[in-house]
């Protein structure tokens, strides 16, 4: 792979996982596309909607697009190639999924042994699980709920022969059809259309390598980021004024994600295009812990948030401070623990991160 493109994908993955942590830092109940569910709209809900329901919503599409691109990069379809890919993804997806899901169950079980723990764990008392509940939690509804991404990715990898044929022969019209299904929210039970769309987009981009290799330094690249942020401000404002019809806000939400992908990609070149830094650069070092941050941050972030809100109260200022600061603490904790585990138990770290 082109060294600059490799660097770009690693840093964008890091950027995306930091945004995912902020999505999960939300201190309100949330409605998809339209933001915070609260009768008292305020500066607090506006800021959280702008970040978590705006800026951060490019993160998951970036992850799936990168995953699809890397899976099909230099791909030659054959039974041998698919078996090779399946073996590799079993180590990098299935084993980490099972390990981190089991970790979530064990963590909750240990925390629920503490006195008065029912104040914080009202839904899942692990000690009361029967066998079907245990396996349902382990495989279908993991406590670290961010594992849905790996869950979807595992199914997409299994369907990769069909996805490759679809993308190879339908090309751009096939991708545009998936865009329509995504906008329409045509999901199926075992994965989301969003996952299929952006994984397929990554596959399609392997057929158009010049698209990703182009370095953007034009006036359009300069205006892409502020244009996207203005669009997000409009969408957030409309959602906070209970704009009717809601369908307009939902459509703006999807458009903003697509615009955000382009803006993020182009803005990276404006900010970072240079000689590819050596492997010891701080950003690349931090990026090497991206998967560990992803896998570890929940349910620890939720537990930490609940604890802070229990002591600080639920006022606008306190909940906003928890929203802004709790993710920074959890990200720092994730990196510190990842670094320690990598030093002390490198074999376990390699298994937990799928060899990343």
UniProtKB/TrEMBL annotation:
**GO MF term (any one):** O-acetyltransferase activity
Check the record and name the InterPro entries matching this protein: Acyl_transf_3_dom (IPR002656)
- Enumerate the subcellular locations listed in this protein's record, separating them with semicolons: Cell membrane
Give the UniProt record's GO annotations in the biological process aspect: enterobacterial common antigen biosynthetic process
Q: Does the keyword Cell membrane apply?
A: yes
Which parts of the sequence belong to the Acyltransferase domain?
A: 15-337
* Domain of life, source organism: Bacteria
The UniProt transmembrane annotation reads 12-31, 51-72, 93-111, 143-159, 166-184, 190-207, 219-238, 250-268, 280-297, 317-341
* Pfam families for the chain: Acyl_transf_3 (PF01757)
Alphabetical GO CC annotations of the entry are:
plasma membrane
Q: Does the keyword Nucleotidyltransferase apply?
A: no
Keywords assigned by UniProt, alphabetized: Acyltransferase, Cell membrane, Membrane, Transferase, Transmembrane, Transmembrane helix
The UniProt entry lists membrane topology as: Multi-pass membrane protein
What does the sequence similarity comment in the record state about its family?
Answer: Belongs to the acyltransferase 3 family.
**What is the name attached to this protein's record?**
Acyltransferase
Tell me the organism: Pontibacter qinzhouensis
